[in-house]
Write a structure and sequence with these properties.
The protein contains four helices and five strands, in the order ααβααββββ. With 204 residues, the chain is an alpha+beta fold. A five-stranded antiparallel β-sheet has the order 1-2-3-4-5. It is rod-shaped. The termini are far apart.
Length: 204
């Protein structure tokens, strides 16, 4: 009878040692655990911050552009308004200057001095006596109407304007009257919120 016990023990020992070596060298299994540091979340956060920053910049740029456009539009509208007021002032003054009646020359001189700069008023005062004598002798009655106006130039708020007008006149020599076309040069500017005629006369 053959004794196999030592061999079995030896085999068992070998298996045991092999198992121990295997367990010692085996890579341990990683149990379910949280994912590594969330680099994906970090990137998402950075992207969100960048997008928000870009949104702020874009909003600021569009806001500035809108403000600039609005300011430019308002400035343009103000310029157009000023040109219209200057033109209307010139036309109104022209109509008054071409309207007079020898029976009431005081009203005429009061009308042409109203809204006129002091140097222009002084000019009318200087020729008042001569004009009064001529108009009274000729018995002149005239009615003027400004028909259109064009701004020739503008510099520092001073407008040079051409006004086209017609004047109906009658006097001793032409009792039936007649129509005369006139082109006047009128200089208008604003003084403390009031539009003033600085100069007036035939356009050369």
């Amino acid at each position: 009878m053959t004794d196999t016990a030592p061999a079995q023990v030896s085999e068992a020992t070998a298996v045991s040692e092999a198992t121990a070596v295997s367990e010692a060298t085996a890579v341990p299994e990683v149990a379910d655990s949280p994912a590594p540091p969330a680099s994906g979340r970090s990137r998402a956060t950075v992207a969100a911050v960048v997008v928000a920053a870009l949104a702020v910049v874009v909003s600021a740029v569009f806001g500035y552009l809108w403000y600039s456009a609005a300011a430019e539009l308002n400035s343009q509208r103000q310029l157009e308004t000023d040109r219209r007021i200057a033109s209307n002032t010139a036309m109104d003054y022209t109509s008054r200057s071409l309207t007079y009646d020898y029976n009431d020359l005081d009203a005429f001189f009061a009308g042409v001095k109203d809204g006129a700069a002091q140097p222009l008023q002084d000019r009318y005062d200087g020729v008042r006596d001569a004009l009064t004598a001529i108009m009274s002798e000729s018995q002149v009655v005239a009615t003027g109407e400004a028909l259109s106006a064009a701004v020739d130039s503008e510099s520092d708020g001073v407008y040079k304007i051409s006004v086209y007008a017609e004047q109906q006149t009658r006097n001793v020599q032409t009792p039936d009257g007649g129509s005369v076309a006139n082109i006047l040069s009128v200089t208008v500017s604003e003084h403390d919120g009031r539009w003033i005629v600085d100069d007036y006369g035939p356009k050369s």
